[in-house]
Write the structure tokens for this entry.
Amino acid sequence: MYDIITVGAGPAGSYFSGLASKNGFKVLQLDFKSEIGIPNHCSGLVNERIIKYSGDDLVLEKPEGATIFTPQGSIELKNRNMVVIDRIGLDKKLSNEAIESGTILSLNSRFIEFKRENNAIAVYYQRKGKIEKASTKILVGADGPASNVKRNLGISGPLLLPSIQFDIKKRDSNVKIWLNRKKIKDFFAWEVPQGQSSEIGISGRYSLDFPYDLLSNYPKIEIFRKRGGLIPIGKSTLGVPGIYLIGDAAVANKATTGGGLLGAFKSAEYLMSSLNKTDTLTSYRKLWESGFGRDIRNAYFLRKIIDKTEILYNLWYNTFKFSNKVINKVGDVDYPEIAAMAILDISIIYAPILLKYFISDLVQIHNYSKR
Ligand SMILES: Cc1cc2nc3c(=O)[nH]c(=O)nc-3n(C[C@H](O)[C@H](O)[C@H](O)COP(=O)(O)OP(=O)(O)OC[C@H]3O[C@@H](n4cnc5c(N)ncnc54)[C@H](O)[C@@H]3O)c2cc1C
């Protein structure tokens, strides 16, 4: 009988398993992959606070800055604290640390289902074509955006936005973001420099062909790999007594940017601190709701507004033209809501000038609704 079975050996699962093993829990970790970290779907763009988890040696790039393209024009941002980390390296490093701390890792092991049996949880998984069974006191779903542990709990959602990414020969050291609700209705496109190469990507339900348009404008660009992933958008769900969710499985990522590494680490830390409490779930919920969960909630709220109208993009763009100091002071890739709200605050100062942009937006929306 294990104390904990963790499903998933991404950053959330491996970091959590390592912490739990260090704290004396007997941990079995399952992942269907045959090699940790591969395939990778993540751009690795984070605030440098993630170096605490990755170490300096996994930093691939410190981008010079970021250019945000909107239908109205582009905005140049300075880089305060953005770095790009080697995501495959991060997964491998965290997994090695977990194993060194005592976690038993079983690769090629696909979680199928769990069943409650007396005082234990029976976990069924497929390995080399055979169904195997292991028993545990606690089950942790760290199995990513399309979590089967979560589905097995009967919890539906979240919305999963598909993404497509192209690895290309590096063009420059600037991050580029395209915000355009006509072409990319419900998310955005990006280009992220990653050391020797750059990644062009997009996520959204409707417009995955945008990078093809973009790339056709640069016929000399050499594409050497295509990949894809899923970004969960929705409210966080932390599980039920005895069965807990962390990382993307818990929707611990930002609905504004899709960024989920910090949420993966925070949720793992909160769950770890709650394991020895009499009511683990209540403690985990409290830590989440009063900590990083609040930022995740705000990001989801902001996403719902952004998805409805172009107004916020327009307001941000136009406000930024009047004062670019604020966003350069508070810009943080892990907490984009802070910059978004700061711009909204200063937009009040410029309200009389900005009003004309708002009025033209409202006229556009009015005309559109009458079509
Ligand atoms: C296109 C894209 C770009 C991104 N860019 C960034 C970025 O720049 N910065 C950032 O902070 N975040 C980014 N993210 C988000 C980030 O990748 C995720 O938040 C992060 O990977 C979450 O870690 P996790 O451990 O919860 O899940 P995952 O990394 O998805 O790991 C889940 C693991 O569970 C395993 N698994 C799944 N199902 C089963 C099963 N049934 N049985 C056994 N094992 C299973 C998988 O093989 C996987 O190893 C991006 C995401 C996407 C899709």
In short: The CA atoms of residues 177 and 276 lie 43 Å apart. Residues 351-370 form the longest helix (20 residues). The mean pLDDT is 88.
